[in-house]
Amino acid sequence: MFSLRFAAHSEVGRVRKNNQDAGYASPNLLVVTDGMGGAAAGDLASAVASTEVARSDHRAESGDEMLERIAGIIARANAKLTDLIDEDLELDGMGTTFCGAMFDGRQFGLAHVGDSRGYLLRDGELTQLTHDHSWVQALIDEGKITPEQAAVHPHRSLILKVLNGQVEFEPDLELIDARLGDRIMFCSDGLSGLVSDPLLRELLSLPDINEAIARLAAAANTNGGHDNITIVIGDVVEQDDELDALPGLLVGSATEVTIPRTGQLSQASGREDRDPAYPTPPEPTNPEHDASEVARYAPAQAPRRRWPGILAVILAIALVIGGGVWVLSAYAGSRYFVADDDGYVTIYNGLPGRFLGIDLNTKVERTDIEVTDLPRFYQRAVGGIIVVSGLDSARGTTTQLRGIAERCVAVREERLRPPAVDSPTATPTPSPTSTMPGLPRGTGAPVAPGSPIATSTQGPIAVGTLTPTATEEADPEAC
């Protein structure tokens, strides 16, 4: 078992007017939170996250428990941000990174969201423990730019993952075994963005932890100090009850901003009338820099509170589709037609075909009339559809089709019968006219398969007149 000797420091830097960073260090936890959002209260966001860390400071018993608990801290901090934003829309846009670890005496349980960083100094070698959730890091990963180019990239401040009151985030979680003599550091990009890795390693190697922090902060200021600087360091030492009993240390915005209670913001009509627990952020001293701060995590920030509008559009589309289906179903329910079903004349209710994969008709009655018993003209008619005005009309049509089929069968049988001896061959004479319910006047031309070939008239049986021609196609008895 080991203990931690820890120290923490946070400062405004040389450009900013207020500190939007926060941090927490204790025998069990080391965390840095870098707020963002400019006038949208980045200081409040970082304070919420670091304060939640302090409230949850208890020694875990295992590595799995550490990861579970630090993930819970992040979730609760994010939920608190959600509540604050829901009560005051002016806070929409604030967010914070979260980078730190829980310590159980044997291991570190790392958790990381954003572009704050964790480093491990072990046996004189410096290792970056975290992977930036940033735009330039994504470009590096894709091989489009080098780390050296990323350091001066115009969009190096844009981050892709952040705690901002939304639910679409997943922290990076990892367990690391601790070794005696390890030094672990978490810092905001006010340090890592201004001090090179070789200089970080050199200054972090200083034996005195407080001197190391002071020299690191001074190096960041020397190189511009254009952002807040927060550093939290822990040294792994032999187990020490006195070290294990030391109280935690909050730094940065967590010591300067009082977090409003739930419901407190909604009771005020505006910032001017609000409880002084939450002060109005000061005007930025560098407007151009503040604009980049506001847009710092723009690529990752999804529009908020658009779900009601999206749901309304989806509901409207569903209503239109549902209404159309209902109207179509109602209309189809009033329609009937006669058609072929597996070689037999059949009555259908509905409309021919399908819509959105749904059959628009149902079988009502399947007769025993074989389509092949009909003359060729009527075979084609039934092979398409015969539209009728109702069920009675459909039944009347099938009755007449039955008569035509029976006559056609009789004609075939007569043709096959041997002629009588010394008698002239009997040839059936087709009737000059025939009527057929539901069929249009014949033209002698072939009927296109699948086309509606019939019209309906009033009355219980829809009757259309067919005037056969001399051709076999139009002859009702051309069997």
User: Segments where pLDDT lies below 50 for 5+ residues?
Assistant: 269-289, 298-304, 429-470
Q: What is the C-alpha radius of gyration, as a whole number of Å? A: 42 Å
CATH topology assignment of the largest domain: Phosphatase 2c, domain 1
Count of discrete domains = 2
By DSSP, the count of extended strands is 18
Terminal CA distance reads 102 Å
User: What percent of the residues sit in helical stretches (DSSP H or I)?
Assistant: 25-40%
Mean pLDDT: 80
Distinct helical segment count: 12
Shape designation: rod-shaped
What is the CATH first-level class name of the largest domain? Alpha Beta
Largest sheet: 7 strands, antiparallel
InterPro entries: PPM-type-like_dom_sf, PPM-type_phosphatase-like_dom
Transmembrane segments: 307-328
Region (Disordered): 261-292, 415-479
Pfam families: PP2C_2
List the helices and strands and how they pair.
Elements: E1 2-11, E2 21-25, E3 29-36, H1 42-55, H2 63-87, E4 95-96, E5 98-103, E6 107-113, E7 117-122, E8 125-128, H3 135-141, H4 147-150, E9 172-177, E10 183-187, H5 189-192, H6 197-204, H7 209-222, E11 229-238, H8 241-244, E12 249-252, H9 287-294, H10 307-333, E13 336-341, E14 344-355, E15 358-370, H11 376-383, E16 386-388, H12 391-416, E17 434-436, E18 464-466
Antiparallel strand pairs: 1-11, 2-3, 2-12, 3-4, 3-5, 5-6, 6-9, 7-8, 7-10, 10-11, 13-14, 13-16, 14-15, 17-18
